[in-house]
Amino acid sequence: MAEDFVNLLADLKEQEVLSLAQKRIDSGEDPIKILDDSRAAMAIVGKRFADGEYFLPELVFSGELLKQISEMVKPHLKQAVETKKLAKIVIGTVAGDIHDIGLNIVDFMLDVNGFDVTNLGVDVPVEKFVEAVKKTNAPIVGLSGFLTPAFDAMKETVEALDKAGLRKDLKVMIGGGQMDDEVKKYAKADAYGKDAMAAVTLAKGWIGAK
After folding, report:
1. Does one domain contain both 50 and 146?
2. Which domain holds residue 7?
3. Which residue in 10, 12, 23, 39 is a FRET match for 61, CA 20 to 30 A apart?
C-alpha cells in the first residue's frame, strides 16, 4: 500500500492517491508514515522536475495534492501531540523563488510538533522577514529556497536581520533543493536542514525542548 501511495502521488494521480490516503487513515495506520511516504513521493517529483520530465504546473499541482493529504492527516496527528506551543518561528521562501512544497511540509511538521509558525509564503522580500521577526519576536527563522539564485537572497535576508539589530539572539536555518552546508556558510545562517524533520530537530534543540 505504501509503495502504491508513493507511486500514485509521484505520478500525480489525484483521485487515486486521495482515496488511498483515506483508506490508510481509516485503517488506523500511523499518520507519520503517510507523511514519510508523501515526502518520498515529493523527492521523486523534485527529481523529475530537475530532469525536465515535470515542469512548473506539475510542481504546483503536486504541492496542491500534498496540501490535501496534509489536511486529511493533520487531525489524526494532532491527537498525539502536545497542544502547548513551544516557541514562535517565522518561515518563508526567499525573494525570487516561488517553490512552496518543502516550505509547506516544514510548516506542517513544525506546527504538529508544537511550534507557533508564521508562514510568509513565497518570494518573500527581506523587509517582510525583518517585519515578521520584529512583530512576533520569534527566536527562529527558517529560510527556504529551491534554486541557486536563492543563495544570494538568503545572504541578503540574514544581513538585513543583522542590520536591524535582530540577529544576536536569533537562530537562522536554511533548507531546500540545492541548499547545503556550503550555502549555510555563504548566507551566514546557523544551520542547514535537509528535510522537515531536520528542521523540527534543529528548532527543538535551539529552544531546549525534547
Report:
1. no
2. 2-78
3. 23
- Note the pLDDT tens digit of each residue in 73-100: 888 876 555 456 789 999 999 999 988 8
Q: Is residue 32 included in any domain, yes or no? A: yes
Strands ordered across the beta sheet of 116-119: 116-119, 88-93, 140-144, 171-175, 191-192
CATH code for the domain in which residue 132 is found: 3.40.50.280
Q: Domains in the chain: how many in total?
A: 2
Q: Is residue 83 part of a domain?
A: no
Q: For cell 504538529, name the residue.
A: 112
Residue 185 lies in a domain: yes
